[in-house]
Amino acid sequence: MVNIENPITSLLLHFNRDGYLVLDGLLSPAECDELRLRMGEIVDRMDVPEHCRIQFSTNHDEQLKTQGNADYFITSGDKIRFFFEKGVFDDKGDFTVPKECSLNKIGHALHAYEPLYKTATHSPKIQGIAKKLGLKSPVILQSMYIFKQPGIGGEVTPHQDATFLHTEPLGRVMGVWIALEDATLDNGCLWFIPGSHNNGITRRMVRTPEGTYPLTDFVGREATYDDKLFIPAPVKKGGVVLIEGEVVHKSEQNASEKSRHVYTFHIMESQETKWNPENW
C-alpha cells in the first residue's frame, strides 16, 4: 500500500507498472460512515417496479440475458437505479431477504444527483490524485455504490473496465474504488493481474443497432486467466484503489458475515480522447 502523500514519481511508478494502486487515508472513518448512512436512507425509500428487478452479473452470457436486454440498465447512465444479487426474489418478484440485504449495486449517476457523493467525487484529494497521475482534463463517466452483501455478495469475474468504457486511444479511463469498510480476503477484496494493462483488451460491450434485440452484445470474449497470476489488494476503510481501465481484476464471492461497501466511479482523460459511441 502506498501513502496518498507520496511524491508524484512514486505514485506514477506504481500505477504505470502494475495498472493499479492502493492508497490509504483518502477518507476519514466519519466521512465513510456519512456516505454509508446516506445510502441507507436511499435504500430505505427504494421503490423498484417489478419489471425492473433485474440481477447484476459480469458473466458474459448472463449479461446478455439480463442487463443487456434491459432498458432499465441501458438508460441508467444519468439516473440512480437499483441492481440486485441473485436469488433475492421469488417467482412472483417479491423479496426473499430484507431489501437492504438484496442489492448488488446502485448506479450510475450518484455523482450527479446526490450532493454528498458529488462532494466526495470532486473533492480536493481526488483532484490532487488526478493531477499527480497526469490527467489534464478529467471528466466523470459514471458512479456506483457496491454493497457486496454478507453471505450472498456475488463473485465479480475477471474483466477489464475498458470492455464497458471504451476509448480511442485506450488507457484513458481510471476507476476510483473507495472502501467504506475494510475490504479483506474474507469479504471480497479486489484481485489484480499486475501489468496486464499492457496487453490490450479482449472484448467490448457494444450497443446493437436500434430496434434489435438484445440491446447490447459483445465483440470478442474475455480471455481465460491463470488464477495464480492474481494478487489480492486488501484495503482499509477510507482507503482507495486506483484501477487502470485495461488491467484485469476480479473479486470473489463474499461468504463472510461482514459486508464490503464501496463507492466507486470512473474518470476519463477527455483531452485528445474519443469516447466510443457504441458504449452502453
From TrEMBL:
The keyword Cell inner membrane does not apply. It comes from the Eukaryota. Keywords: Iron, Metal-binding. One of its GO terms (molecular function) is metal ion binding. Its cofactor is Fe cation. Gene3D superfamilies: q2cbj1_9rhob like domain. The keyword Ligase does not apply. 2-oxoglutarate(2OG)-dependent dioxygenase that catalyzes the conversion of 2-oxoglutarate to succinate and CO(2) in an iron-dependent manner. However, does not couple 2OG turnover to the hydroxylation of acyl-coenzyme A derivatives, implying that it is not directly involved in phytanoyl coenzyme-A metabolism. Does not show detectable activity towards fatty acid CoA thioesters. Belongs to the PhyH family. PHYHD1 subfamily. This is Phytanoyl-CoA dioxygenase domain-containing protein 1. The gene is PHYHD1.
